[in-house]
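Q: Hi! First time doing this. I have a protein sequence and I read that you can turn it into a structure. Is that right? Here it is:
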Amino acid sequence: MLKLQKAAVLAAVVLMFPLGGSVAQDNEQHSETYRQLKLFGDVFERVRTDYVEEATDEELIESAIQGMLSHLDPHSSYLNEKSFKDMRVQTRGEFGGLGIEVTMENGYVKVVSPIDDTPAFRAGVEAGDFITHLDGEAVQGLTLAEAVERMRGLVNTDLKVTIRREGVDPFDLVITRDVIKVRSVRSRIEGDVGYVRVTSFNEQSTPGVENAIKDIKKELGESMVGLVLDLRNNPGGLLTEAISISDAFLEQGEIVSTRGRESEDTQRYNARSGDLVDGLPIVVLINGGSASASEIVAGALQDHRRAIILGTKSFGKGSVQTIIPLAGHGAMRLTTARYFTPSGGSIQAKGIVPDIEVEQARLEEVNNGPQRSEADLRGALANPGTSGGGADSQPSTSEAPAAEEEAEPVDYQLSRAVDLLRGLSLFSERSTN
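A: Yes, that's right. Below is the predicted 3D structure, encoded as structure tokens:
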């Protein structure tokens, strides 16, 4: 019976290796393949019969597949039926969990970015954090899929997450799980500048951007001087959405190309005419949490000089994962190609370097006390455009200003982006006068 099962396992794996090429080369390759498969069969049989605790054939095969895929790179993995279902729900914009996009690095779970307005975001999880323990149990030794599965759970249940962050001692956060409903696009007005934030690229992203810009243009009208497209801490998502959002601001040209192992696998995606903001200047905000699809958009707009990229270098995930359904057994996520920007540069492990590097900072006003000016000097000449004399006619400025209520923290990178757009608008107006 065991020999029959072993033979069945070998036969199933052999089917994955098609015939082709020269006969001698094929024979040599197949001979080595059979030797390796025999090794796998021997280990499978020994574990199945002699391991201290009984393990099902399904568990062993699934673990073997997971190990094979996860060994290739951090983004290839096996999705069982439940994980596959969860992934499809997530791309539609709603899923359960803590609200973080993660990857695996050096055996730990690394946070690519927290999703806005989710339990993890509100608890203070930051891009670049490493999760070392879940409810006191180390994550080392777990696959990424297993770690994600443990982070998911029933709504309103707590999970203690141990965080390792650069510059501080490890600390614990207790996060209450919730249904994560991702509103992938938010927008508002910053004076005469439109602001659109895209938090992820799901099926709702392109319509969300189109509606947001339509509302901004309706409110600002001719007074709109530019647009800030905020992709900070956006972990990516669907390639189709990244292409369509890039296309929304480009009149022509290549948006992105994907190149696989074989030259015939290369695909190029080009823009069609039409610009949602009618040529107004754009500033794109990125940081270390901007990954994958975010980098495609930033790279396309940067290479075509359609936008100024401001912030800090992006994450550098420049690989394409293809979801391959496996009949009755979930799916496999396999890295099949790399992304390249229109200029031919690879995003992988390099990221998008901003045109203007601006670190996030906390601003504090410095009160130097009452300041004297020319108008305060006795006998100062009056401005010819005003009535009255010099210092004797000026109101006293010796009183200290009244204390103001504590203001909301200033988003320094956004402030720089808005100032830049206003400066470009002023320069453009003066050039045309």
